[in-house]
């Protein structure tokens, strides 16, 4: 089993190295790719150094079985053919192919089997905010069909990449030192602020990030659910959080929802407000599950329920979800 | 006109001093009150020093016309009789009396005239998050009755008082200096975090802060509207933000809503996403209006609309709103 990581130096790429090691992923050979910026750099994996190769249009992917790509949508599009043409499965973290009809969009807890039907050899990993939400929604959908979703997100700096996270830390340092604040990775200063924009605006007034939540949720869950999202950048480093309201066909009680969430794969129910226990990004960072708490009735909707969730968007929202897809393919013997 | 400020040293109290000066409030004499902690301290107002007096059960409020109180609900309850028994109007910023039937709960943009009917001499200033929301809702309610509200808040550290705001700054300093982080004013570390709890929990799983949004909105707007709120503390210093979804009786178009908001008292429409213009706490801090942007259709509700707002919760959410109530009473000749 030969595995490639494209974008190894990035926030998601680095997490791939950790997740593959942590889970003892059954690989025999690992190759790393990047641009000129990181080519030649060495990263440790299972006690051995691996050098980053320059990504080029050549036959480097000839013997690769699984390629995890996280170098942005442009690179994914440009190199998809190089990566897949010898038979490698490309599990792509970018938004390049997510809504393509002939590319499955997979969250194993929801629709693992969709990964088996991939005419182009590409499987798309959904948007991080969407992955986190659907992992929590699936057990509730199993109780009663979800008709609408309202969701407000609290997304961390690292969602915009490794350099963006460093910029937030630098901003607080600059403020402490009484220096002017550097703003380059975000549209505005993020330190001591909240930015109600993630990705670019669409004609309907929603951002791309918000429309991903609408479209990708429907595709992953095979559902006609309607989702209105507000995606907001806040001053946490790692792990996103979300406030979610759902309307189901029949009313679900809080107890019923909690019971379903407590046993759902990929979910940890963390709902003990009397002891000030609820999910928070500072604690969910670096962990695998989606943490759900503050489950309660929607006071504005008799068929409604609301809850809060938090999870590491670089783990389950990106690297971990992609690795879980690969593990599923290996388990069912469907890699090549 | 003799005016008193109870809790003058606090976040809201200090803002009273600024707002009264900025607006050239027609007062002849100003008296400040506090506990032992601040008694004797001097604050400048219109170029003159004013010494904080110790708040006691005595006749200090004998000649006071208007008392602005912001020293917490316990103090308001304990001293309401001392303050009002000689005829002073008590405009109270705490939650002590807000839901009492014989105490009007007033946001001048919504229900100014309610302030005229105050059998106990007390007028309550609503919860800050609620004030900010209803200022933006009123012009939309005037177009079509609002039936439901879903709201997720992004509340700044100063909402918990002056010391809490200082604690957040200290936390970032400690992190920069590699020291252990002090946590005392918030239930958890707030720096680089998001805390999904403001105030204490109620049996229905909502916090008091969230239930205030349900109950106070109905009282202020004389409405049967149902509101499901999620109140969250984020890492901004001053000014709260809110993501709001409303369902109206008839559908309101985005253009219609924007037009109504653009001319609404107390509202500044700041809705130009193509130029990355939308309300943010870093910019709305220290200003008077509620800034509304990102107005768009609710994709999950044909009669729904959604928008984002931000405003200074110590100004319009507290001191400014109270002063505006007083200005209204003066204007209609209804102080004593
Ligand atoms: N961060 C998240 O939370 C998250 C979550 C889900 C999905 N994603 C998606 O994952 C992708 C990567 O995100 P990230 O946060 O890891 O970004 P990042 O930290 O900025 O890393 C970007 C990576 O892409 C590589 N790259 C850029 N241009 C390249 C080129 N021409 N050839 C080869 N490699 C190139 C970079 O390598 P060099 O260092 O050599 O330039 C780097 O390894 C994006 O599509 C993003 O939308 C991110
Ligand atoms: N911060 C906000 O955004 C906001 C918004 C709306 C409403 N409010 C409400 O306004 C009130 C004050 O909030 P804050 O944020 O200004 O709090 P703060 O910064 O902690 O200030 C509290 C004030 O209360 C005074 N005080 C405390 N105990 C007292 C006593 N026994 N006798 C006399 N004065 C006493 C303090 O004076 P000493 O310094 O002498 O102790 C101080 O001036 C609270 O009810 C709060 O819920 C706050």
Automatic annotation (TrEMBL), chains A, B:
Pathway(s) it belongs to: Amino-acid biosynthesis; L-methionine biosynthesis via de novo pathway; L-homoserine from L-aspartate: step 2/3; Amino-acid biosynthesis; L-lysine biosynthesis via DAP pathway; (S)-tetrahydrodipicolinate from L-aspartate: step 2/4; Amino-acid biosynthesis; L-threonine biosynthesis; L-threonine from L-aspartate: step 2/5
Oxidoreductase found in the keyword field: yes
Domain of life according to the entry: Bacteria
Residues annotated as binding phosphate: 98
Residues annotated to bind substrate: 155, 233
A Pfam family of this chain: Semialdhyde_dh
Keyword tags: Amino-acid biosynthesis, Diaminopimelate biosynthesis, Lysine biosynthesis, Methionine biosynthesis, NADP, Oxidoreductase, Threonine biosynthesis
Listed GO MF terms: aspartate-semialdehyde dehydrogenase activity
Catalytic residues (positions): 128, 240
Annotated binding of NADP(+), by residue: 9-12, 37-38, 158-159, 180, 313
Residue ranges occupied by any Semialdehyde dehydrogenase NAD-binding domain in the UniProt entry: 2-118
EC number: 1.2.1.11
Swiss-Prot/TrEMBL catalytic activity: L-aspartate 4-semialdehyde + phosphate + NADP(+) = 4-phospho-L-aspartate + NADPH + H(+)
PANTHER family for this protein: ASPARTATE-SEMIALDEHYDE DEHYDROGENASE (PTHR46278:SF2), DEHYDROGENASE, PUTATIVE-RELATED (PTHR46278)
HAMAP family: ASADH
Oligomer status and interactors: Homodimer.
Family: Belongs to the aspartate-semialdehyde dehydrogenase family.
Function recorded in the entry: Catalyzes the NADPH-dependent formation of L-aspartate-semialdehyde (L-ASA) by the reductive dephosphorylation of L-aspartyl-4-phosphate.
Protein name: Aspartate-semialdehyde dehydrogenase
Name of the gene this protein is made from: asd
């Amino acid at each position: 089993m030969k595995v490639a990581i494209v974008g190894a130096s990035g926030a998601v790429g680095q997490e791939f190295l950790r997740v593959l090691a942590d889970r003892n992923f059954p690989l025999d050979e690992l190759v790393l790719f990047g641009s000129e910026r990181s080519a030649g750099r060495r990263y440790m994996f299972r006690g051995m150094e691996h050098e980053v190769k320059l990504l080029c249009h050549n036959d480097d992917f000839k013997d690769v079985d699984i390629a995890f790509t996280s170098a942005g949508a442009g690179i994914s599009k440009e190199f998809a053919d190089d990566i897949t043409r010898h038979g490698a499965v490309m599990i792509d973290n970018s938004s390049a192919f997510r809504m393509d009809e002939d590319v499955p969009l997979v969250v194993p807890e929801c629709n693992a089997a969709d990964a088996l039907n991939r005419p182009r050899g590409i499987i798309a990993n959904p948007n991080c905010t969407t992955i986190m939400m659907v992992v929590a929604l699936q057990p509730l959908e199993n109780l009663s069909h979800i008709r609408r979703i309202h969701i407000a997100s609290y997304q961390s700096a690292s969602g915009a990449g490794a350099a963006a996270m460093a910029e937030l830390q630098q901003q607080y340092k600059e403020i402490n030192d009484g220096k002017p604040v550097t703003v380059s990775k975000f549209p505005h200063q993020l330190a001591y602020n909240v930015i109600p924009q993630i990705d670019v605006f669409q004609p309907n007034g929603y951002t791309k990030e918000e429309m991903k939540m609408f479209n990708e949720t429907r595709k992953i869950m095979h559902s006609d659910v309607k989702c209105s999202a507000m995606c907001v950048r806040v001053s946490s480093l790692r792990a996103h959080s979300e406030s979610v309201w759902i309307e189901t066909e029949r009313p679900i009680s809080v107890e019923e929802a909690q019971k379903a969430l407590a046993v759902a794969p990929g979910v940890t129910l963390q709902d003990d407000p009397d002891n000030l226990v609820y999910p928070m990004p500072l604690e969910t960072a670096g962990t695998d599950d989606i943490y759900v708490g503050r489950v309660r009735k929607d006071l504005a909707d008799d068929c409604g329920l609301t809850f809060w969730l938090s999870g590491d968007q670089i783990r389950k929202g990106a690297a971990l979800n992609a690795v879980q897809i690969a593990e599923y393919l290996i388990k069912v013997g469907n890699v090549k």
